[in-house]
């Protein structure tokens, strides 16, 4: 069995303890600085690897942009955009055409036998509403009044306007109606 007896005075004991603590702190600090240095080297390595990959990618992309296949892809993309634009125009035209056919069909269903249309116009008014204008000829006022009534009762039309000149004569009447198409 070994017994160690420390015969140093207390201030010397404190100095030795302080020296040990300083040594431990120095070792920890050195290890931390060394770790930071290694981490910095690792970050620099990663940064260089990314720069090299970026340069390789840029070089490859630049070479690819000068190839015929890239030019064909660009050309195809532009053509697809053009076709898409034209398809939208055709679609909107078909919708407008369908709307016109629906109006013509509806008027055909409600017009009396002795009332004839000379002109049917659909246009966009200043209030951005689709406005219908009908010009025609009626043999009898009663038929014209019936046509006006059916226009006003129809769910497709609103704000049916009939000038007073439509009602002046009893027979052989040239008429004009305006109405707003419901959306």
Task: Please provide a written account of the structure.
61% of the residues lie in helices and 20% in strands. It has a 4-stranded antiparallel beta sheet. It is elongated. The chain has 183 residues and is α+β, with helices and mostly antiparallel strands. It has helices at 10-65, 68-110, 141-153; strands at residues 115-124, 130-140, 157-161, 171-181. The mean pLDDT is 86.
- Would you tell me the structural class of the helices and strands? alpha+beta
The DSSP helix count reads: 3
Mean pLDDT: 86
**Largest sheet composition:** 4 strands, antiparallel
| Low-pLDDT segments | none
Q: Radius of gyration in whole Å, from Cα?
A: 46 Å
**Ends apart, CA distance between termini:** 108 Å
Strand content bin: 15-25%
Q: What form results from the Cα inertia axes?
A: elongated
Strand order of the largest sheet: 1-2-4-3
Task: Please bin the fraction of helical residues.
Answer: 55-70%
Q: Number of DSSP strands?
A: 4
Order of helices and strands: HHEEHEE
């Amino acid at each position: 069995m070994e017994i160690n007896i420390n015969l140093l005075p207390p201030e010397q004991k404190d100095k030795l303890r302080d020296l040990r603590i300083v040594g431990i702190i120095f070792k920890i600090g050195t290890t931390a600085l060394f770790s930071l240095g290694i981490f910095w080297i690792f970050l620099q390595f990663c940064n260089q690897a990314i720069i090299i990959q970026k340069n390789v990618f840029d070089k490859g992309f630049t070479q690819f942009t000068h190839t015929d296949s890239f030019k064909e892809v660009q050309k195809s993309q532009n053509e697809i955009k053009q076709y898409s634009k034209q398809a939208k125009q055709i679609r909107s035209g078909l919708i407008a055409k369908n709307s016109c056919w629906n109006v013509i069909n509806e008027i055909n269903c409600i017009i009396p036998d002795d009332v004839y249309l000379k002109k049917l116009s659909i246009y966009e008014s200043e209030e951005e509403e689709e406005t219908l204008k009908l010009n025609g000829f009626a043999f009898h006022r009663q038929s014209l009044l019936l046509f006006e009534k059916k226009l006003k009762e129809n769910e497709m039309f609103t704000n049916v306007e009939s000038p007073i000149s439509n009602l002046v004569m009893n027979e052989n009447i040239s008429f004009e109606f305006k109405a707003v198409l419901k959306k």
